[in-house]
From TrEMBL:
Residue intervals passing through the bilayer: 65-85
Keywords for this protein: Disulfide bond, Membrane, Protease inhibitor, Thiol protease inhibitor, Transmembrane, Transmembrane helix
Family affiliation: Belongs to the cystatin family.
Protein known as: Cystatin domain-containing protein
One CC-aspect GO term: vesicle
Span of domain Cystatin: 83-190
Segments of this protein annotated with the region Disordered: 24-55
Source organism phylogeny: Eukaryota, Metazoa, Chordata, Craniata, Vertebrata
Domain of life of the organism encoding this protein: Eukaryota
Signal peptide (residue range): none
InterPro entries reported for this sequence: Cystatin_dom, Cystatin_sf
Length: 215
């Protein structure tokens, strides 16, 4: 490429581009360069991978679901524990602990009975237990009045005399095993069958409820 310049004597001079005047070349060179202060290095933009927003949304939903599930299971566990601690459940009346509670109830019953005769345990009809501070036993038992009098050498269970009367009783026994303490909380009895002449002993027809603490 060639440039034409007009000199003072109006003559046209053809010069190649590499022979441009120094001032012109210096201006072009200066224009092509930028001062270091004007140069701004832009940081590369990092774009999140496709679908990352959906992944975060899914993760948040999963975390909320897990948290809700944990809370629900905790509530179910608490409610179940409360039901176990507060509700009475049916148990086998032939269990050893049930028989111990029933025999204890019979001893306390004989001590507090107004009858001059001893009563003995015939059968545990049904039993329930309730977990409290210890164990509550709810017993339905069948007892019989013997011919052995109170104060005799033999106790009620070893008395071999014929049973004169059968009654059905409800006993509530509170047992605290670690304190070795039992309490006859309440009892109520009703005559079921009488033998011999007359209508039998009717004192047990009245419902009785009382609390007896035994250390």
């Amino acid at each position: 490429m060639y440039f034409y310049f007009r000199s003072q004597d109006s003559e046209k001079v053809l010069r190649p581009t590499w022979e441009q005047p120094p001032c012109r070349a210096s201006k072009m060179a200066a224009g092509s360069r930028r001062a270091p202060s004007d140069v701004r290095e832009s940081a590369p933009r990092v774009f999140p991978p496709a679908g990352s927003a959906n992944d975060r949304r899914t993760s948040n939903m999963a975390a909320k679901f897990c948290l809700g599930l944990i809370v629900a299971l905790s509530l179910i566990s608490i409610i179940s524990s409360m039901q176990m601690a507060g509700g009475a459940i049916n148990i086998n009346p032939d269990r050893a602990d049930v028989m111990n509670a029933a025999n204890f109830a019979m001893q306390e019953f004989n001590q507090n009975s107004k009858s001059v005769f001893l009563f003995k345990l015939l059968k545990v009809l049904s039993a329930q237990s309730q977990v409290v501070e210890g164990i509550n036993y709810f017993l339905d038992v069948e007892i019989g009045r013997t011919q052995c009098r109170k104060g005799s050498p033999s106790n009620a269970q070893s008395c071999n005399s014929e049973v004169a009367q059968i009654s059905v009783c409800k006993f509530q026994v509170w047992d605290i095993p670690w304190l070795n303490k039992k309490t006859l909380v309440s009892y109520s009895c009703k005559s079921h069958t009488s033998f011999g002449k007359g209508k039998g002993h009717n004192s047990l027809d009245e419902r009785v409820q009382q609390r007896i603490d035994v250390n």
